[in-house]
Amino acid sequence: FGHTFPFYAGPKPTFPTDTTLAVIVAIFLTSLVTFIIILPGIRGKMRLFWMLRVVTSLFIGAVILAVNFSSEWSVGQVSTNTSYKAFSSQWISANVGLQIGLGGVNITLTGTPVQQLNETIDYNEEFTWRLGENYAEEYANALEKGLPDPVLYLAEKFTPHSPCGLHGQYRLAGHYTSAMLWVAFLCWLLANVMLSMPVLVYGGHMLLATGLFQLLGLLFFSTATSLTPPCPLRLGAATLHTHRGPAYWITLTTAISYVSSGVSCPPPRAS
Amino acid sequence: QNSISWEVQRFDGWYNNLMEHRWGSKGSRLQRLVPASYADGVYQPLGEPHLPNPRALSNTAMRGPAGLASLQNRTVLGVFFGYHVLSDLVSVEKSGCPAEFLNIHIPPGDPVFDRDQSGDVVLPFQRSRWDPETGQSPSNPRDLTNEVTGWLDGSAIYGSSHSWSDELRSFSGGQLASGPDPAFPRAAQAPLLMWTPPDPTTGRRGPRGLYAFGAERGNREPFLQALGLLWFRYHNLWAQKLARRYPLWGDEELFQHARKRVIATYQNIAMYEWLPSFLRKMPPEYAGYRPFLDPSISPEFLAASEQFFSTMVPPGVYMRNASCHFQGVINRNSSVSRALRVCNSYWSREHPNLQRAEDVDALLLGMASQIAEREDHVVVEDVRDFWPGPLKFSRTDHLASCLLRGRDLGLPSYTKARATLGLPPVTRWQDINPALSRSDGTVLEATAALYNQDLSRLELLPGGLLESHGDPGPLFSTIILDQFVRLRDGDRYWFENSKNGLFSEREIAEIRNTSLRDVLVAVTKVDSGALQPSVFFWHAGDPCPQPGQLSTEGLPACAPPIMRDYFEGSGFGFGVTIGTLCCFPLVSLLSAWIVAQLRRRNLKRLQGQDRQSIMCEKLMGGIKAVEWQGCKEPCRPVLVHLQPGQIHMVDGRLSVLRTVQLRPPQQVNLILSSNHGRRALLLKIPKEYDLVLLFDLEEERQVMVESLRGALKESGLNFQEWELREQELMRAAVTREQRSHLLETFFRHLFSQVLDIDQADAGALPLDSSQKVQEALTCELSRAEFAESLGLKPQDMFVQSMFSLADKDGNGYLSFREFLDILVVFMKGSPEEKSRLMFRMYDFDGNGLISKDEFIRMLRSFIEISNNCLTKTQLAEVVESMFRESGFQDKQELTWEDFHFMLRDHDSELRFTQLCVKGVEVPEVIKDLCRRASYISQEKLCPSPRVSARRPRKDADIEVELTPRRLQYPNDTDPPQEIRRRFGKKVTSFQPLLFTEAHREKFQRSRRHQTVQQFKRFVENYRRHIGCLAVFYAIAGGLFLERAYYYAFAAHHKGITDTTRVGIILSRGTAASISFMFSYILLTMCRNLITFLRETFLNRYVPFDAAVDFHRLIASTAIAHPYPVWSSSVLHSAGHVVNVYLFSISPLSVLSCLFPGLFHDNGSEFPQKYYWWFFQTVPGLTGVMLLLILAIMYIFASRHFRRCSFRGFWLTHHLYILLYVLLIIHGSFALIQLPRFHIFFLVPALIYVGDKLVSLSRKKVEISVVKAELLPSGVTHLEFQRPQGFEYKSGQWVRIACLALGTTEYHPFTLTSAPHEETLSLHIRAAGPWTTRLREIYSPPTDDSCAKYPKLYLDGPFGEGHQEWHKFEVSVLVGGGIGVTPFASILKDLVFKSSVSCQVFCKKIYFIWVTRTQRQFEWLADIIREVEENDRQDLVSVHIYITQLAEKFDLRTTMLYICERHFQKVLNRSLFTGLRSVTHFGRPPFEAFFNSLQKVHPQVRKIGVFSCGPPGMTKNVEKACQLINRQDRTHFSHHYENF
Ligand SMILES: Cc1cc2nc3c(=O)[nH]c(=O)nc-3n(C[C@H](O)[C@H](O)[C@H](O)COP(=O)(O)OP(=O)(O)OC[C@H]3O[C@@H](n4cnc5c(N)ncnc54)[C@H](O)[C@@H]3O)c2cc1C
Ligand SMILES: NC(=O)C1=CN([C@@H]2O[C@H](COP(=O)(O)OP(=O)(O)OC[C@H]3O[C@@H](n4cnc5c(N)ncnc54)[C@H](OP(=O)(O)O)[C@@H]3O)[C@@H](O)[C@H]2O)C=CC1
Ligand code: HEM
Ligand code: HEM
Ligand SMILES: [Ca+2]
Ligand SMILES: [Ca+2]
Ligand code: NA
Ligand code: NA
């Protein structure tokens, strides 16, 4: 290797996607694989039925969990020119993204092009307001760390005593929506247990409960986040508007599907 | 191309300095010039007595009349411009967390604050927010933080954060947002924005009428507001100008360009126009940006500037128009005055005089013309006495507050500050201000007196003020000048710093010569002529001189201070709320009572119907009533029929409950109740126990009384009638229970000798009511009653024969006297008397002769007792042969002499314990009967009749005179066994004898000993229960203490402890223990898990069978134990009620510290009302609901209610699901701390759900009852058909639910049927509500209508039922107390298996039954008899040990004792129980028994011992086995069976 020490040069490798999402997918893939291994043990027609059931139920579980940790509940994206950093009057043109999840917010800044002012402008900063976390402290650290201006601007909007009041609103919404989703996850677990037991009808009820709790969570999120008037998010000349993100829609669709499947379950036989 | 070419200055002051990014930023520390001086050197402020009382100092050093003009003619505009600049640079008014208070104790008699001379007025003063990293140790004492940007950057105009400025902007045309009138900014609506305290004059609250400014407190007075409005208009002016010049620019560009310009102008005026006007000298010329200069604001500057402005504040402010007309001002009370009174305009909303833009202009112009107050130590009362008060007081002393703020800041003393700032030292008080000491020396002397002449203690603030005379003193000037110079030179964005690219040189020059007047002219419609060039001074010749120096005359008086009571008007409501919470239990009690009444009514209706339907066909004229059987016994509905000479009582199923004979010459008493609706009736009939009847209505009772009178007259009885109160009536009645108890006591007295106890210990006869004793003795036992008290079935032969024998007068009742006689005869009568007694006993038709068939019946009664193994024909043959042998073959009847002759040979035998049938070659069958009866060797005990007959009579030594006097044998061993061995009676062959003598404890009369014994017994039996309870409550207590410790000592950073000390400790502590208790209560109801675990070794440590009791106990301690005082939920709620009260009287500044997420301190000061806490917060609302649910659950789950309506209990009990949901939500809001309940709840909940799933998937079998028999002592024998495929091992148990008693209430019972039998049988003792109701439901219907029994749900079988006893050649089964139930099935199974298949390995089984009394176990005696019958190979040898102390014997045990000891056995069976096994009285001698067992079975290597019963007993068995095993001969392997 000549005189240089081998591995110290070059950019540090970073994990491409969101880590929690990766963990969830990993868990469910392994359980799927283990099931496939034991699949040959089941004979004939039942094999297909079981395969179908396990895949769908694992998928449902993965969705509920992933959605809970995802930060794609309320998203917004704007491409604009903004000031970039302290001690420089240069402006950059960049895409500023805002992904508001249940436990916090992700602010992304990607330069268009990424290489500007001979720097790579590609930031994704997370600020959490989950129970037990201290958002104000995280913002103070970000200020001290010296993050780019647009990131600090958006982060400041969500600080506890910022005039818009976004912090209290999203913290409450995130807290109780996440709680509802956890309950939905528990109902899903129970539904699986019951469906594998000779109590099919209760399993159906549990599926229905899973869907209802998800709907309840969605209702809570949308009402809680629309209490106060919209907060001005001005980046340079452009304004950033947020709208419901993919996580919201996925939850809505899965919820409706469970509710319908739960309702269509065989009516409880006269016990 | 972007027109913003310069680096836009951040709003929060960050990243101004390249090296120190934090300098001047919002939230950064104040930078001290002089080291801090705190009392403890770290953060405790100095105070009295070291420093004077602030109010006293203010009254002495700063009091004086208003109206002294500024010596330099400074204008009021300059003062309020100064306040505006100060609000841009520093703000430390946000109160700190956790809240700390320095209170101003008002000296008694203070004219403003203590008008009614009470002397105890205290003005609260809250310390400000500090940097948490400071103030913990001496080298880094506490530093306060600056709430705004320290830079002179127009933060008072644009706000100190980007999001604050966004709220002020309109985002169109670069302008700041305006309200309806473009000259005024938007209203301060956003809740988190402006400071909105109540108006001290009018008391008006809320944000309406206040404007949104950059400075949070910009609305303090209209005069400061005017400055804010000035700059607001100036910004919009520039934005419009730029928009016109550069139409292409967007809103952002216009805004930033305008902002840059406004800030520059602001900097210029403040630095180069305003500051010189105050210091009367120009700051040094700008020499360029100095990046290494620390510009931070110093606490000394804050104190100096604040003080200096306050001395110049006038009592009022003129308003004038451009043409120098000074307008009048309309006051609140519509009077007109010369100027706006300052003290009445603090925080004023929608002031009548300042509605329009022109009014603001007038105010600005007025201020430009008005001369400020003199720059001296005097401060006007508007500031000194009537400053708006922050807490509870509408007014406060601003000077005293600033003094305390100085002490809060830890400001140095005056002399120390001067020294550090290089000013010449001051040694004498006069030197502070020579001019002042000359003109008015008293002020300095008075101040010196307050500091008791110690100049070194003089504080910075009063010193600075006293220094100033016409100009700020040298100290204040130095501090102020130094601060502004540093602010200018250290600021990268200073407008003159050409390197920051903000302005060109031209623009800088242009800005340098813009004065405030130019700004005023630009924003108001006034031309420059109306204003003097330098608006900070007003010199003669300047336009519009002020009419006169304003003083307090001619101005309205200041509104006096008022005390704000946050709790005003809510006292009553609070009391009512607590009241409702407290009577939740009462409400649910009421609803429970209503439900009970409803149930009782429709129950009666139900019974009424089916009685009507049956009644009509059968007997007419029955009267409905309820029989009262005693205060503890349940009342039972009955139907009373009056027949001639008889009262007939029938129950709902028309089965006869009781018949009362009415025969003359009995004297009957009829007593009627005189109160409680006069519905009770007591009938006292001699010889009978009393009859008490309760009716629904008095009329019904009247009908009964009439018919009674009629019936009694008919049967010729005279009776008396009188009235008693119902309570006395009930007390006078002798119930059946009392009478049988009386009888038992009486028997013990009688047989005290025989029972080897002395009379005194035989139990106390109620001597108080001797009349009652007489009655009891004269009363007579009916046949059914006699059977019941002996624990036998009425149709038992023993009962029949004894009854017929004893009932001399044949009246169908056994008088006490009659019963006594035969007993005595049995015990001490001579052989003749005994055989005459036997003769009379079997002379059924009483004709003095025994016919052949009567003889047969006699034999059958003996044989039947031994389970009639002889058929009728065999018996006839036996009798024929006996008659033939005695030569009476032709006699049809025997006289007594014949009878005695037949038995003659055996009179000696009559003396011994065997009554064998005399004479005839006893047929093989009977011999066989004898043989099997013996339990060891055949020959010894029951020698063939022939052999025993020959024994010579005069064998004196064994002549035992069975007389009632004490028998000579060691009292702790039972006699017969002992006699043979002790006296060496030669037995045919030497057979080692089993030692089975019981060890009888002596009766200890001393009360103390008895209680100690009882306690020891209790601990021994309930050791496991006590252990588990101790662990459980230790954990709950530990959790409580942990939280209590945390909130008492470790949570000071939260500050909640100081607010509600006891309340929070109590509520959080109990919350933790509740979380634990309510979570782990679920484990007690995991029935399948418990069923599984009770089979494991754990059962030795955890009493799984007591799960239900444990459940009730936890629930009651978690909810409201009978002593509600210490139950957790009630305590928790009480703790929070205290918290709610304290929260609703704490100011918002304290609450915003305690609940940062919930409250933001915006100065509105008033906390939320109590009802907000209770009903509008998540924990509050759910808490109240929880209380309601718990009240309902607790009341409906009480034992009494469960008895009368199980459905009601079961329905309300399922509220537990809602309870848990609410509990999770309850803590979810994290109001005080993170929720922890779910951590406790998760594990037990998952286990419980799993358990429920298991029971969901178990299929319940519905079976019908084949036979139901009511056995004595409240035992119900149920036989039901065995579901097909139901396999079980002996000793296992099942859970049954009765459809009539609720399909979900299951109870466990051990199967007493053996696996080979085709039906299943249970013996159920009436223990509690369910089992008692079961007995009522299955009481036998009248014979003809076979009313169907309600069906049962069967679940099971449960229990390991391990069967090792087959593996042992010899095994010993030890059953103790209720632990004996499983052995019934085991014994039957053993006998069946051994008789059927010979491969069963075991040869001999010893069954030892240890029980205190046979009450409720009589049925076991029947089963043992059955076992003895089927036991062909003499496999089972049974020993019964009654361990009840003789002094406590009940009637049955007394009879048993007498028969066993003194009465002849019939065919080697006890005449009383018919059992061949011997009954001992005392505890079994396990060691001795095991020892003798080795001798009896020397060839057996291993003996299996299986014990089941109270832990004490099984422990003794274990000890005995270990002892024997140590001698390593036969090995006794002991198994704890757990059925
Ligand atoms: C393994 C086992 C075998 C039993 N075998 C017999 C038997 O053969 N004959 C017999 O008469 N009794 C037997 N019992 C006791 C019988 O279950 C109780 O007496 C009966 O459940 C009392 O119910 P209750 O509502 O009438 O009385 P309650 O007043 O409700 O209770 C009285 C006592 O019974 C216990 N108990 C109440 N409900 C239950 C329950 N669901 N599960 C367990 N314990 C309960 C409580 O510990 C309480 O101390 C057995 C109990 C167990 C655990
Ligand atoms: N482990 C198991 O499987 C079972 C245990 N039990 C337990 O039995 C306990 C009480 O039942 P209960 O019927 O009231 O029992 P009792 O208290 O009525 O005692 C039953 C018999 O055992 C005798 N006995 C008690 N302790 C000793 C001892 N140390 N040595 C010799 N004999 C002794 C008693 O004699 P004395 O009167 O002289 O004390 C009595 O004759 C309960 O706690 C129950 O949990 C019940 C059923 C099954
Ligand atoms: C003083 C108060 C209470 C009493 C006297 C009481 C008594 C009882 C009784 C007798 C049973 C029926 C046991 C059986 O026959 O199987 C029962 C069941 C139960 N109780 Fe309680 N209880 C009380 C309070 C509570 C509380 C506060 C909770 C929950 C927080 C609770 C939860 C349960 C549960 C879960 C069951 C089982 C229900 C089922 O099996 O479906 N109980 N209780
Ligand atoms: C007037 C009635 C009540 C009031 C005002 C009240 C109030 C509160 C409050 C303010 C808390 C703290 C919650 C937090 O920190 O977020 C709390 C916690 C708690 N309370 Fe109550 N409560 C009441 C009644 C009850 C009752 C009846 C129960 C029992 C069933 C109960 C059980 C609990 C538990 C278990 C917690 C701890 C929750 C956790 O840590 O997750 N409370 N209560
Ligand atoms: Ca009689
Ligand atoms: Ca006769
Ligand atoms: Na500032
Ligand atoms: Na003054």
Secondary structure topology:
The complex is a heterodimer of chains A (271) and B (1539).
Chain A: H1 19-38, H2 44-69, E1 74-83, E2 91-100, E3 104-116, E4 119-128, H3 135-145, H4 149-157, H5 166-195, H6 200-224, E5 234-235, E6 238-239, E7 243-244, H7 246-263
Antiparallel strand pairs in A: 1-2, 1-7, 2-3, 3-4, 5-6
Helix pairs in contact in A: 1-2, 2-5, 2-7, 5-6, 6-7
Chain B: H1 54-61, H2 76-89, E1 104-105, E2 122-123, H3 155-158, H4 162-168, H5 222-245, H6 251-279, H7 299-312, E3 316-317, E4 329-330, E5 336-337, E6 340-341, H8 357-369, H9 381-384, E7 387-388, E8 395-396, H10 398-409, H11 414-420, H12 434-439, H13 441-450, H14 460-467, H15 474-489, H16 505-512, H17 516-523, H18 571-582, H19 584-617, E9 623-627, E10 636-643, E11 646-650, E12 656-661, E13 668-673, E14 680-684, E15 691-694, H20 698-714, E16 719-724, H21 726-732, H22 736-750, H23 770-778, E17 780-782, H24 783-790, H25 797-806, E18 813-815, H26 816-828, H27 831-842, E19 850-851, H28 852-865, H29 872-885, E20 893-894, H30 896-904, H31 907-911, E21 914-915, H32 924-933, H33 938-941, H34 945-950, H35 975-982, H36 1007-1021, H37 1023-1050, H38 1056-1080, H39 1087-1093, H40 1107-1118, H41 1128-1143, H42 1148-1154, H43 1170-1175, H44 1178-1196, H45 1199-1204, H46 1206-1213, H47 1216-1228, H48 1237-1257, E22 1261-1263, E23 1265-1271, E24 1275-1281, E25 1293-1298, E26 1307-1310, E27 1319-1325, H49 1329-1337, E28 1352-1358, E29 1370-1376, H50 1381-1396, E30 1404-1411, ...
Parallel strand pairs in B: 13-16, 21-32, 29-30, 29-34, 30-31, 31-33, 34-35
Antiparallel strand pairs in B: 1-2, 3-6, 4-5, 7-8, 9-10, 9-15, 10-11, 11-12, 13-14, 14-15, 17-18, 19-20, 22-28, 23-24, 24-27, 25-26, 25-28
Bound molecules: flavin-adenine dinucleotide, NADPH dihydro-nicotinamide-adenine-dinucleotide phosphate, protoporphyrin IX containing FE (HEM) (2 copies), calcium ion (CA) (2 copies) and sodium ion (2 copies).
